[in-house]
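Lecture 7 notes: from sequence to structure.

We start with a single chain of 179 residues. Read the sequence below before looking at the structure.
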Amino acid sequence: MGGRVHATRKVNGSFALVEVPGVEGTQVGPYGDRQATTDRDGFALVTDLAPMVPTPIRLDPESLPLGADIPTLERIAVPRWRSGVRLRFPVRAGRSALVQLRTPDGFPLRSGAEIKVDETLQKFLVGPRGEAFITGLTGLHRLSVQSEGVNCQTHLVMPAGSIQEVERIGPLTCLPNTP
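Now the structure, written as tokens:
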């Protein structure tokens, strides 16, 4: 299935091939059971599913790396009798960072300010000490910040590293937007 070969015991019933692209070591199974673990390419085989019965296949959030940004942890499998289905959990690639942001005069940005990364719709909030936990980072990004009386931007360069690691970046100075 999916052009891949999977070593397993004899499969007599229905199954699901679960794909969490590029995320190794994630535990997955029906109804939240931890039946299988994704391989280095992000694949896992979940067996012994009831045919023609909607079965929730769930990722264990505790086994996901911090940098994995996955919109949903559960998908429904409805395999036919003695056959399989492929379930793909989309992953937004990138790493995570705790970013410290400051105003031009050196003070931390106010808690509750919203940060947009590049032109995406996803927003992150600034917390205490002007820090924000931001996911899905790779390479160069423009951070746009908006809150009461603050409309500024800065650039962030994410260093290379493992998806398992959280970088500490900053302080970065957020400069006022020019019209």
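The longest strand covers residues 139-147. Keep this in mind for problem set 3.
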